[in-house]
Design goal:
binds zinc ion; 47% helix; 474 residues; binds adenosine monophosphate; 15 strands; four-stranded antiparallel sheet; 15 helices; single chain; alpha/beta
Length: 474
């Protein structure tokens, strides 16, 4: 299995630090807003990486943080007249709903920055003790030039960086020894949340939280550290500087970075989707039009290191593609139910053997730096094969073997293998509720109950209020 490692700039054979175990850390979102579909890309991609390791028989420990204290969260809290904790808690809940819709596994840890403040203070103190950090007027800075390998991930040269930084003076950071130095701890400003520390009442810088959470939940050395490519510099470079200086061992063996999700601008050019450019669509926006599984499937249609351009046409084609796969699954389960013969015929034995070629192709694609685009193509060809070779009269064993093989691949891609209709769209829920209201009005209680049961089955919770029926997803 080969992985492209940003650290070496090469595809390398994957060898885990401990046999049979993989430790993965993925930088998660800052929670001051609903996540946009660009933020969802690393979630989907690295969840798929996680699923493929599981498929290969590895034991996986997967950690992805929430940054729940940050300037942007404080700003949002001030605008809303609430506090930073409330803002973060609210958007973490919303993000969890989006992740569930996207099929992100639940078998992972999502620590919060504010839960590891004592550990951050401890690591900062270690860095000070070792001469890698210094305090000035309540602020603690990392002494970048002291870390000899600084720049090894991004390929940046420290003197070029210095030249670029010469003119930059950040307010409140006048006491830095060197413009390259970055903040590990900063004193609070009026009205900001703060924690006690040996240097000031204040809060941690952004970079230190990931170094600390990786250490706490995975250990000093981890197999894979991942995130979007915008994080290579300075975030991941700074994480390496902090972790390796504090722990004295290599931090992550493989560094993986996804390319950007882009969207077309007024000039007709594709640009990175980002909150700051204001060109974003939230995952929630998409969920009003499509089951979120379609968004996941759309993302898997490109190699993760390439940019992916969002468009309505591509979403429509992803929707159709996914429907083709689902129809095939439904057909297999119907064949299974209808089957009269139990065991395989000679022809079926041969066909099953032939069908193994699709699994092989799928694995080859995934083994080649998680080429999900080719893996999806193998799934489509498998679907075509099934449509041609699984016909009325097939034996039960044949239909269920094909079903199992297809489901195993879909499971890796994080696509639901349930047959029948999937998740309901918001509009469909609204229509059903309206129909239920009409039925009740007409005293057709049987139909009203039937609709209620259907909604419950689809994970929709109904609340009868004085203003009518409200609903939410489970
Ligand atoms: P943020 O909340 O901006 O720190 O982003 C959380 C994660 O989403 C990081 O791994 C980013 O690299 C990633 N990310 C943000 N925007 C995009 C985008 N347009 N395409 C792909 N990944 C993105
Ligand atoms: Zn991080």
């Amino acid at each position: 299995m080969k992985i492209y490692n940003t650290l070496t700039g090469k595809k390398e054979e994957f060898e885990s630090l401990e046999p049979g175990k993989v430790k993965i850390y993925v930088c998660g979102p800052t929670v001051y807003n609903l996540i946009h579909i660009g933020n969802a890309r690393p979630m989907v991609i690295f969840d798929t990486v996680r699923r493929y390791f599981l498929y290969k028989g590895y034991e996986v420990t997967y950690v992805s943080n929430f940054t729940d204290i940050d300037d942007k969260i404080i700003k949002k809290a001030n605008e809303d007249g609430s506090d930073a904790g409330e803002v973060a808690t609210h958007f973490i809940e919303e993000c969890n709903k989006d992740m569930e819709g996207l099929g992100i596994g639940t078998d992972m840890l999502h620590p919060l920055a504010t839960q590891v403040i004592p550990e951050m203070i401890e690591m900062i103190q270690t860095l000070i003790d070792k001469g890698y950090a210094y305090e000035s007027e309540g602020t603690v800075y990392y002494r970048v030039r002291k870390f000899k390998c600084y720049g090894k991930l991004s390929g940046k040269n420290i003197d070029d960086l210095e030249a670029g930084h010469r003119e930059i003076k950040v307010a409140g950071e006048e006491h830095k020894e060197d413009n390259l130095d970055f903040v590990l701890w900063k004193p609070k400003k009026e009205g900001e949340p703060a924690w006690e520390s040996p240097w000031s009442d204040g809060r941690p810088g952004w970079h230190i939280e990931c170094s600390v959470m990786a250490k706490k939940f995975l250990g000093d050395s981890i197999d894979i550290h991942a995130g979007g490519e915008d994080l290579i510099f300075p975030h991941h470079e700074n994480e390496i500087a902090q972790s390796e200086a504090a722990n004295g061992v290599p931090f992550a063996k493989y560094w993986m970075h996804n390319g950007f999700l882009r969207i077309v601008n007024k000039e007709g050019e594709f640009e990175k989707m980002s909150k700051s450019l204001g060109n974003f669509l939230t995952v929630r926006d998409i969920s009003e039009k499509y089951p979120l599984e379609v968004l996941r499937f759309f993302m898997l249609g490109a190699h993760y290191r390439n940019p992916i351009n969002f468009s309505d046409e591509l979403m429509e084609s992803s929707k159709n593609g996914l429907e083709r796969i689902k129809t095939c699954l439904t057909k297999l389960s119907e064949l299974n139910e209808k089957a009269t013969a139990d065991s395989l015929t000679e022809d079926e034995k041969k066909l099953l053997k032939d069908s193994d070629a699709f699994r092989v192709r799928f694995e080859e694609a995934m083994d080649d730096d998680f080429n999900t685009a080719d893996a999806v193509a193998a799934v489509f060809d498998f679907v075509k094969f099934i449509n041609t070779n699984a016909v009325d009269g097939a034996s039960r064993e044949y239909a269920s073997a094909l079903q199992e093989k297809l489901c195993a691949l879909l499971e890796v891609l994080g696509l639901s293998t349930e047959t029948g209709a999937g998740e309901l769209l918001d509009e469909e829920v609204d229509n059903l509720i309206q129909e239920r209201n009409e039925a009740r009005k007409n005293k057709d209680f049987a139909r009203a109950d039937e609709i209620r049961d259907l909604l419950i089955e689809k994970g929709i919770i109904l609340e009868d209020t004085r203003d009518g029926v409200r609903w939410k997803r489970k």
